[in-house]
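Exercise 7b. Backbone tokens:
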């Protein structure tokens, strides 16, 4: 029966781990960058250190066990097996909450926030703050299946999430997301207002209006972020949205290449004071890289850009209550006035004191507080 929900546990084969160590040992390294900063990309010395740690000290089996502490499942929707964490709360009034990651993230981003959301009493909250948490892996990411045909863009994924929540028996739910998760969450709120009680996002895919006078301080901050992104930080996106297949050969074959491709963004997009290890442990960084390497999803994950950018899609109109958290080191900080043409019911807006693009991963306590606060208004 295609609607069956099947238990799932992460279990990477020993052959994959042996092959990984072999490839890391045989890496053919480029020469070092010619500058003393990250302006030419991820520094050789650090990527060598990370890969050395990955090969010789990182304990995947221990990390795998930690990831498996939450109940996981797969179910086939629209011909594709979808993997998801489903952490149910013991609190009878818990609100179902579907949380969606983006690129280069994964379900690893949410490992530090699931328990506080599910069991708030044990983590400084009230029983009325409780959620049943559902964390799916995007199609072509992690342990979800890879689409075998085109058409799996943001809106189709959102429609799939609505079907998933219905299959789980949730007639009313909230949705939260960052990066591509923000786009999926936005589309879900637009497509399923009869069941989606509210959406909360940290990145808004909205363009500034043209020719409307001097920008405000909020708009100047966002415009500066947009200029930096376009000028210096968007090459990965152009490649993934135009030629994901070409990119995939190198990333699928080289663990050091896959690590550098991902980890540069954990430097560029986090509130890390210049170095990712100021905010994440090496194990945490590599847990996320492993969900791309071990599943061979460099190419299939990049195709989401090809599917979702350009004339293929427009931003939908969302009428359900919307909450926005503005983290200061977000790639482009949201601007309320830019969002209002598409978000007709913004009821919550928070300027966060610290944090960047990977909000739940970087600042789990702030993230949990913010999610509790917004969804308390729509329960």
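Sequence design result:
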């Amino acid at each position: 029966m295609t609607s069956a929900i099947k238990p799932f546990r992460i279990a990477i084969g020993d052959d994959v781990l042996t092959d990984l160590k072999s490839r890391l040992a045989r890496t053919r390294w480029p020469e070092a960058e010619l500058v003393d900063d990250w302006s030419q990309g991820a520094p050789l010395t650090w990527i060598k250190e990370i890969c050395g740690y990955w090969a010789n000290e990182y304990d995947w089996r221990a990390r795998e066990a930690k990831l498996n502490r939450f109940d996981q499942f797969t179910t086939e929707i629209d011909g594709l097996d979808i993997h998801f964490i489903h952490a149910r709360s013991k609190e009878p009034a818990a609100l179902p909450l579907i949380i969606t990651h983006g690129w280069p993230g994964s379900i690893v981003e949410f490992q530090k926030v699931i328990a506080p959301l599910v069991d708030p009493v044990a983590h400084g909250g009230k029983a009325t703050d409780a959620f049943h948490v559902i964390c799916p892996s995007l199609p072509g990411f992690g342990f979800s299946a890879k689409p075998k045909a085109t058409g799996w863009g943001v809106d189709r994924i959102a429609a799939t999430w609505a079907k998933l929540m219905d299959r789980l028996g949730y007639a009313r739910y909230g949705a939260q997301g960052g990066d591509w998760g923000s786009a999926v969450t936005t589309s879900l709120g637009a497509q399923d207002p009869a069941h989606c009680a509210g959406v909360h996002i940290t990145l808004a895919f909205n363009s500034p209006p043209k020719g409307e006078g001097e920008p405000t301080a909020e708009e100047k901050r966002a415009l500066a972020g947009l200029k930096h992104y376009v000028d210096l930080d968007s090459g990965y996106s152009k490649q993934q949205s135009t030629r994901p297949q070409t990119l995939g050969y190198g990333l699928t074959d080289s663990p050091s290449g896959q690590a550098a491709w991902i980890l540069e963004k954990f430097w560029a997009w986090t509130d890390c004071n210049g170095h990712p290890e100021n905010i994440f442990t090496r194990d945490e960084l590599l847990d996320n890289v492993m969900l791309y390497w071990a599943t061979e999803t460099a190419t299939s994950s990049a195709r989401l850009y090809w599917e979702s950018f350009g004339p293929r899609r427009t931003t939908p109109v969302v009428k359900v209550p919307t909450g926005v958290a503005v983290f200061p080191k977000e790639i482009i900080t949201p601007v309320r006035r830019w969002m209002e043409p598409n978000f007709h019911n913004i009821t919550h807006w928070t300027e966060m004191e610290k944090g960047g693009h990977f909000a739940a991963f970087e600042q789990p306590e702030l993230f949990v507080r913010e999610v509790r606060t917004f969804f308390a208004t729509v329960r």
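Instructor comment: The chain has a mean pLDDT of 96. Residues 274 and 304 are 29 Å apart (CA to CA).
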